[in-house]
Q: What sequence folds into this?
């Protein structure tokens, strides 16, 4: 049985999300330090709602309509949204895109 590709894929997605965040927020994101799976969008990155929308658009351009950041946020209560991490988003994307590939492949 082959190893689960999700963890490796999640690492790749984390790097892609980091690149997207730099394009949305700007180079000042790099001052914050390394973006890790534990980095929160609210406390660590202080993303504003307009930046979430821009990130959502980039995610859909890269991964397709199956990755709906705004839909994911709509499923969460305010405390969950405030605590959401970059790693949580990366796992969500890996799971959704793997499921989407399984359905089409």
A:
């Amino acid at each position: 049985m082959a190893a689960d590709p999700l963890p490796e894929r999640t690492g790749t997605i984390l790097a892609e999300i980091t690149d997207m965040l730099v394009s949305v927020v700007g180079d000042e994101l790099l001052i914050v330090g390394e973006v890790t799976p534990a980095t929160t969008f609210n406390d660590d990155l202080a993303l504003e709602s307009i930046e979430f929308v821009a990130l959502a658009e980039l995610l859909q351009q890269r991964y397709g309509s199956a990755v709906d950041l705004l839909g994911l946020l709509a499923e969460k209560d305010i405390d969950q949204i405030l605590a959401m991490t970059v790693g949580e988003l990366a796992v969500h994307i890996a799971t959704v895109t793997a499921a989407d590939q399984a359905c089409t492949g």
